[in-house]
Structure formats: C-alpha cells, structure tokens
Amino acid sequence: MAMKTDAFTGDSPGDGNPAVPYTECLSFRRSDALCEGRSWLRGQEPVARVRTSAGDSVWLVSSYPSARQVLEDARFGPVGAAAPRVPRGGAALRGAVMRGLNPRADEGLHGWLRATADRLIDDLMAWGPPVDLRAGFADPFAAALHCKVLGVPSGDWPRLMSSLDIAFMASAHPFEGVRPDWYKDAGYMAERLNAPASERSGLLGQLAALREGPEAARPADGTLAAVAVSLFGAGAVSTSAFLVMAVLALLRHPELIGRLRGHPERTGRAVDELLRRNLPVADGVRRVALADVHVGDVLVRRGEQVVVLVEGADFDPRAFEAPGGPNPGRGRNPYLAFGGGRHLCPASALGRVHAETALAALVDRMPGLGLAVPAERLVWRTGFMRRLPERLPVLW
Length: 396
Description:
Blueprint: E1 8-9, H1 22-26, H2 37-44, E2 47-52, E3 57-61, H3 64-72, E4 76-77, H4 90-100, H5 109-127, E5 131-132, H6 133-150, H7 157-161, H8 164-167, H9 178-193, H10 202-209, H11 221-252, H12 255-262, H13 267-277, E6 285-289, E7 293-295, E8 298-300, E9 305-308, H14 310-313, H15 348-365, E10 370-371, E11 393-395
Parallel strand pairs: 3-9
Antiparallel strand pairs: 1-2, 2-3, 4-6, 5-11, 6-9, 7-8, 10-11
Helix pairs in contact: 4-10, 5-6, 5-15, 6-11, 9-11, 11-15, 13-15
Organism: Streptomyces enissocaesilis
Protein name: Mycocyclosin synthase Cyp121
Keywords: Heme, Iron, Membrane, Metal-binding, Monooxygenase, Oxidoreductase, Transmembrane, Transmembrane helix
C-alpha cells in the first residue's frame, strides 16, 4: 500500500542552527547528487532530534557507526515491531520466501537473465535511438525477474507494474486509490495461489504448498497473497530504480563503461560501488527502539523512532576512503544499501545478480551508450518512495 512519509523540520536541540535545514536533507528528491546538509549533520549532530511535519519527534542518524548500529542491533526493529504479530506458519513462510529469493536455487537463472536482457536490448536496437532506457529496459527487466521468481505469467507484468505508481506514492495521509489498488493486486495473487497445481510454479507454488500442512500452522490465503504483492512491488521497484541510477552513474562517468567492457570480471565490484553511491530511499529508513539503547552519546528510549540517513552513512569518510568519487575497484566496501544484521534485505543476492547481468549486457552490447539529453534536463519524480528520473533517454 502507499507509504506514509513526512517532511522533517525544526531546529536542533543543540546549537539550534544547522547549516542546511533538515527538511532539505530528508526531502531531497535527486539521487545523482547529494544534499550538502548531510555532511553537516554527520559531523556536527550524527544523532539529531528532529520533528516531522505531523508533529512527531524522531531521531535522525547520519554517521556510519551510528547507522550501522541501528540497522544491525536487534534492539531496533521496523516501525510497528514493538508488538509484532506472527502469522500462522510464520517460520515456514519465512523459509519459503528465503528459498524463493535465493538465486542459487535456480541453476539456470544466470543464463535466463542474460537471454532476457539481450532480448530487451535487441528490441531497443531495432527501434533505434533515442529510447527511454527506464521504460524499455529497466522496468521490464525488473518485472521479468520478479514474475519468474514468483511464478507469475510473464505477460502479466504490465498489469502488476501499473499499480506501483500508487502503491509506492509517498503521502502523509491516505488517499482514495490506495485500498482498491492493493486489493486489486491481492486478488490477482490469490487467483494465482488457487490455480490448478499444474499451473503453479516459483514462489507462489511454494506458498500454496504451505496450506497442505497441519491446519493450525497453515498461513491464511490473505497473508500469502499479501506477501506475494509486497515481494513483487518492493522487488520490482527497487531493482528497476537501482538499475536506472546505476546506468545514469555510468553515463556521467563514461570512462567506467570502457573499463568494464575491457574487464567484465570487475562488474561485481562495480555493482557494489554503485550500490554504495545509490540514494534511492527518499525519506530515510525508519526503525523503532524495542528497548532503551545508547546510540553514540544519545540515549534512545524504548518506543522512540529513528530515521537512518543511509546517504550520510555510505559517504562517511571514516568508513570509505574518498567517498565522493566512484571507485569500482574499491576493496572493502561495507555499504548499508541493503540494511544489516537480521534486517538485511533477503533479496540482496538476487538484486546483485540482476544488476550485474543488466550492466554486463548493456556494456557489452551498447559500448557507445550515452545520455540523449543534458543531465540537468532530466525530470525527477516527486512524491514517490524512490528517487529516480521519470525517463532516462539514451543514445548509442
């Protein structure tokens, strides 16, 4: 469903006069550039008390050590986790999801991904330049992967992707289209779960099989459908957004395309560096303290919310040498793009395989790839939970 978000306002309780307002850092809508205020926050108030536009008081964390602690410490959980409700069959459900998102579980995945990427590139080249790489490659490639993983007919991807503009719209208040948008997709997934066994595959097939166990441990159909909707939405949006931003970063540093084409074995490290530099989440990562915890010199009390400014942490010079410039050959790269600890994104390995395949195919097939418009003319999406341009017009 659509995500609630707030603008962050108010002065620091310390010196009370930050160089750049918190609102600017948390509402910054571009992900090809950094808000200058994050450096001030990280250096002066790495754990700062701020207030949302709705009047809620939260802690804003922007240094690498503090951000890593919040993301990895079991005493912090997702918002709403203070009194978690474990669904029936929760352990089996989690196990099925983890298996379904493991790229090693499908021996043919790498070849399938490359063939799919090549097919999409064939279509782009047949159309001729310029083309919108987001609509013509990033979105359908991300959707194709998640259709395969879930066991959804590949031809249904436009229907599912069309819901995401509403599902991931950032709004402090609910709006009319949220509920029908959610139930439309949940109904679709429920239909797939109840299809004949011979027509089920992928993760949906595994989820449907969970209903064959003891009644007391069977997850409800609504729970299984919700899991499927959430996995498709979060996965497709995240992988497509990262791919758009990774390509844009390469286009702004075209010498990197030549290096990767000459040394394709370095693609994995390049993806790691692009993930470190990726700034996709528009309003930070929210966590809630499940106990009283000291973060740096600050005591965060149980029930208080913390917002992790990942873009501050992943550009912290104490953790990354020369963090401002892209360094695809960087050795140690402990970035926090996928979170950390027990809250590490379960699809992190799948996302990396997807990105590595996409970039390898584009660099190999389109070595002359370049922007078709000046970078400053790109139109950036607002009011969305991911920072990305509406279109990415390219030539080759």
